[in-house]
Amino acid sequence: MRFANKVAIVTGAGGGIGKVTALLLAAQGAFVAVNDLDEASALSSVADIRSAGGQALAIPGDASDETVAAQTAICLIET
């Protein structure tokens, strides 16, 4: 697996290209932090990744917000 033992943060991963990117990274072994403005969409992408055998965590919010970015980093360090 190309991305085993790696973490990928994918913004806009609740749908479209972001979701496909998150799914592909997870399929290649990455632990994926799924970020999206819409919490329900982020959780749906995480469920899809997990049902395919991958590992993921939903981090809803605006990735351009410094507070959300900091919380993302802290959350991934603690995971």
Give a description of the structure:
The protein has helices at residues 16-27, 39-51, 66-78, and strands at residues 7-11, 31-36, 55-60. 48% of the residues lie in helices and 22% in strands. The protein has three helices and three strands; from the N terminus they run E-H-E-H-E-H. Strand 1, helix 1 (16-27) and strand 2 form a beta-alpha-beta unit. The two termini are 21 Å apart. The radius of gyration is 11 Å and the shape is globular. It has a three-stranded parallel sheet, sandwiched between helices. The protein is of the alpha/beta class and 79 residues long.
* Percent helix range: 40-55%
Rounded mean pLDDT is: 95
- How is the largest sheet built, in terms of strand order? 1-2-3
The termini sit apart by 21 Å
Broad shape: globular
Rg (C-alpha, Å): 11 Å
Number of helices in the DSSP assignment? 3
How many beta-strand runs? 3
Q: Describe the sheet with the most strands.
A: 3 strands, parallel
Low-confidence stretches: none
Order of helices and strands: EHEHEH
Which structural class fits the helix and strand makeup?
alpha/beta
Q: In percent terms, what proportion of residues is strand? A: 15-25%
